[in-house]
Amino acid sequence: MDFSLTPEQQALVDTASRFSRERLAPGYRTREKAQRIEREVVREMGGMGFLGPELPEAVGGMGVDCVTSGLLLEQIAYGDFNVSYVNLLTSLCGQIVAQHARSQAARDWLAQVIAGEQLIAIALTEPGAGSDAARLKLRATRDGADYILSGEKTSISMATQADVAVVFARTGREEERARGISAFLVPLDQAGITRTGFDDIGTRPVGRGSLFFDGVRVTSDMMLGAEGEGFVQVMQGFDYSRALIGIQCMGVVRASLDEAWRYTQEREAFGQRIGEFQGVTFPLAEAETYYEACRALCLRTLWLKDQGLPHTSEAAMCKWWAPKIACEIIHQCLLTHGHGGYGGDYLFGQRYRDVLGLQIGDGMANIMKNIIARHSVARAAG
Fold first, then answer.
1. How far from 235 is each of 92, 124, 182, 273, CA to CA, in Å?
2. How far is CA 71 from CA 84, 85, 361, 382, in A?
C-alpha cells in the first residue's frame, strides 16, 4: 500500500486544509447556534472540488481515488465536523446516483449537488427500522408510469435542509424483506412532503429530523437501478461511507490533539511547562498511538475500495472504533486543559457532543462487530 499523493492531489489536500482552518473553524460555534450550514459555504466547497471528488468527471466530480477523497473529508472535519457531513453525504449518495441513475434528470440533480448548489440526504431509517433496515415500511405503490410514496423516514441527517434525497421504499411484499426494497431520487419540495427537526445534543447544524411522505408522486425514471435492488445498493454504499466516517472522526481528533499539545507548551505549573510532566504527556502520547492506528485502518480500507478488493469487515471496524476513540481522545484533551477545558472558551465539549452521534448513526457498535465476526467466522471455516 502506498498512500503518497501526486503533487496535484497534495495541492488539493493543502487547499482543503487552508479552507478548513481559515473559513470553517471560525464559524464552528456560530453554526451550532444557528443550527444551519450556510449555503454559501456549501457552494464554496463545491467550487473548489471538495464535494464528491471521487465521482466521475462525467457527472461533475474529479475522478480522484477514494483515499484522496477521504483525506479531503478529514481536512474539512478538522475545522468543522458538522460541515463535513455535506462532504460525507455527497460521496455516499453521489456514488449511488452515479452508478444507478436511469434518467438525465437524476444526473442533473447530482451535478448540482456536486457543485454545491443543492444539498442531498439519504433517507433509509424509519421508526421501526434502524439497524434492521430490511424491515422498512415506507411504501412505493405503482400508479401507471409513476410511483406513489407514503410513509415516514426518521433520524435523517440534513432532513431540515436537504433539497433532494435518496429514498428507500418498499415496492415488494414485506415478507420479501431486502429483496422488496427500491431506491428513488426524490426532490423534497414536492406537495405531500413535510419535515420536522430534532432537538439533538450535538451536530445541530446537520439538522437531523423526520421526513413524512403523504401520497408523493415520483416518476419511474427517478428510480435508481432496478426495482427491488435498493437494499444492495445502500449496503455497498455503506462499505464506503463507514470508512469515510472513520477518517472524518480522525480530522476532529487531530484538531483536538494539536490544541492539547500546544497547551502543554503554554501552561506553566510548579515553575515549569506542564509538558514536562509525564502525567500530562503520557495520556496524549497514548492518544497519538490510537489516532495513528485508527487513521491507518481507515486509509487502508479506502485503499482496498480503490483496488476493487473486499472491505466490508474493515469498513465495519472503522465505523465502530473511530467514533469511540474520537470521543475518548477529545475527552482526554479536555482534561488536559483542566477547569478551562470544561468551559465554553474551548471547543472540546461541542466536539464531543458532535462526534458522539456517530456511535449511533450508520450502525451501532454491536451491529458492526456482528459484521466483523460473521466475516471472520466465514474466513476461518474456509
1. 11, 11, 13, 50
2. 12, 14, 21, 35
CA distance 311 to 41: 33
Map grid coordinates 489516532 to a residue.
291
Quote the pTM value: 0.95
To the question of domain 231-380 being in CATH 1.20.140.10, the answer is: yes
Reported in sequence order, the residue ranges of the chain that DSSP labels E, i.e. its strands, are 120-123, 139-143, 146-156, 164-170, 181-187, 193-197, 209-219, 223-224, 268-269, 272-273
Q: Rounded to an integer, what distance in angstroms lies between the CA atom of residue 17 and that of residue 77?
A: 10
Query: What pLDDT is recorded for position 238?
Result: 87
User: Domain 7-118 is classified in which CATH homologous superfamily?
Assistant: Acyl-CoA dehydrogenase/oxidase, N-terminal domain (1.10.540.10)
- Listed as ranges, residues in the chain with pLDDT below 50 are none
Q: Please report, for the chain, the start and end positions of each structural domain, with discontinuous segments joined by +.
A: 7-118, 121-228, 231-380
121-228: CATH, from 2.60.120.10, 3.40.120.10, 2.40.110.10, 3.30.499.10: 2.40.110.10
Q: Mind giving me the DSSP string for 187-248?
A: ETTSTTEEEEE---SS-GGG--EEEEEEEEEEEGGGEESSTT-HHHHHHHHHHHHHHHHHHH
Q: Which three cell numbers stand for residue 121?
A: 440526504
- The rounded distance, in Å, linking the Cα atoms of 334 and 328 is 10
For cell 462525467, the residue is 58
Distance, CA of 218 to CA of 122 (rounded, Å): 16
Q: What is the pLDDT of residue 360?
A: 93
